[in-house]
Each structure stands twice: as structure tokens, then as C-alpha cells.
């Protein structure tokens, strides 16, 4: 891996939005796969010491991913995501909500908009997370911030392994 890559994490409480911009020292196809294939998401998304397990994923508009973050004690925290827009290799949007093990969503949720671009072998991912509820955003913000930073670090390591850089 080369020098550290750009990373920006901004919270706009008035707009109930968190924006994350992160560069990865990997080509666009590999980074796109890491964000859109369950077998790869399960490897980097859970912050240590959590693990992740995807029950199912159907990556198409109207399709869903149902997965859990699992604590070392075996406690599961489920989330249900529905893909609302996909432009291959450049953008996808999903609606995310916590859920119970039977896929009953806990509303309100959040809308995640992912944008991908590549220049000279470096891929930039911009993630905008709009929260339907300010109270929900306030409740999860600290853990979300710490968890996302850990997850994106995990992704760096996975991309290094997969790309052989």
C-alpha cells in the first residue's frame, strides 16, 4: 500500500446527514465489488471484534440485503437494506433500517448514497447517509463514527490482500 489516502468524515446535524469521503489504493472494479458483494462485505464491514453474516442479498433495484453484525458473545444486530437505485460501477442507493431476526424493520431508517470514481488506480468512495430522524442520528452517531472508521480500515486491509499490492 502506498501513502495514506484521503479521508473525510463530516456530520451535518441540521441536515441529518453524515458524509464520508474515502480514497482506496485499488482499482474501481475491486472497490465496487467490495461494496456490493455479500461475501466481501462480510469480511470488512464488521468493526473488530464483531463479525457479520449475510442471510441473503439480491443486488438489484428493489432487491434486498438482510444481514447481522454478531458480537463475540453471539448477540446479533440485524439490518435490512433495500436497493433503490444502481448505476453499475459509479453509484448505488439503499434504504437501511435496523430489524429483528424476522426482517421486521425498526423505523425510522436512513438513506445511503454511494458514489464511486477512479483516477490513476485510486478509487474515491463518497457515502452520504441521510437519517430520517434527528433523534435516531443522535443516538447512534458516536458508535457509527467509530465503527465506520474501523470498517474502512478493514476494507483497506482486504483490498491490499485482494489486489496483491
TrEMBL record:
It comes from the Bacteria. Keywords: Plasmid. Residues 26-159 form the Activator of Hsp90 ATPase homologue 1/2-like C-terminal domain. CDD domains: SRPBCC_CalC_Aha1-like. InterPro entries: ASHA1/2-like_C, START-like_dom_sf. Belongs to the AHA1 family. This is Activator of Hsp90 ATPase homologue 1/2-like C-terminal domain-containing protein. It comes from Hymenobacter swuensis DY53.
Amino acid at each position: 500500500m502506498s501513502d495514506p489516502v484521503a479521508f473525510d468524515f463530516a456530520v451535518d446535524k441540521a441536515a441529518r446527514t453524515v458524509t464520508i469521503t474515502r480514497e482506496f489504493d485499488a482499482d474501481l472494479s475491486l472497490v465496487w465489488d467490495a461494496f456490493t458483494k455479500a461475501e466481501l462485505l462480510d469480511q470488512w464491514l464488521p468493526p473488530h471484534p464483531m463479525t457479520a453474516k449475510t442471510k441473503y442479498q439480491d443486488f438489484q433495484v428493489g432487491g434486498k440485503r438482510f444481514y447481522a453484525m454478531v458480537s463475540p458473545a453471539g448477540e446479533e444486530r440485524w439490518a435490512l437494506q433495500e436497493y433503490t437505485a444502481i448505476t453499475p460501477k459509479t453509484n448505488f442507493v439503499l434504504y437501511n433500517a435496523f430489524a429483528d431476526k424476522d426482517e421486521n424493520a425498526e423505523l425510522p431508517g436512513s438513506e445511503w448514497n454511494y458514489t464511486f470514481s477512479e483516477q490513476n488506480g485510486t478509487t474515491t468512495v463518497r457515502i452520504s447517509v441521510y437519517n430520517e430522524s434527528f433523534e435516531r442520528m443522535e443516538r447512534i452517531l458516536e458508535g457509527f463514527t467509530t465503527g465506520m472508521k474501523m470498517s474502512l480500515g478493514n476494507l483497506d486491509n482486504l483490498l491490499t490482500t485482494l489486489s496483491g499490492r
